[in-house]
Request: fold
Amino acid sequence: MKGKAKLNKHRSIINLIAKLEKMLNDHFEICDYWEADLCAIGIKTNNKLVYISTANYINQSNLLYDFDFEINSSENPAEIVKEGRNCSEEALIKAINSFWA
Reply:
């Protein structure tokens, strides 16, 4: 995985990335298109990008996630194919596995 050493993000994102590294065997690249947003990160494999945000939930006892799944191609540079809001970590990871399958 690229970019790990420079990751300056909220602990909710750092903890999620650490868990994903173990579960997905580092088979993704970090795409930090939102450097100023400490609660957002992108991860991708091939032409599939997952945008993840915890911004709406960091002050809640039960952390949730928002996500967008994008497929990049020459015809559609950033086509959003699925959105998820108020998702548990388990639901997010399951959705990522399905999207990347």
Q: What stands out?
A: The radius of gyration is 13 Å. The chain has one domain: 4-100. The helical segments are 11-24, 89-100. The beta strands are 29-31, 40-45, 48-53, 65-71, 79-87.
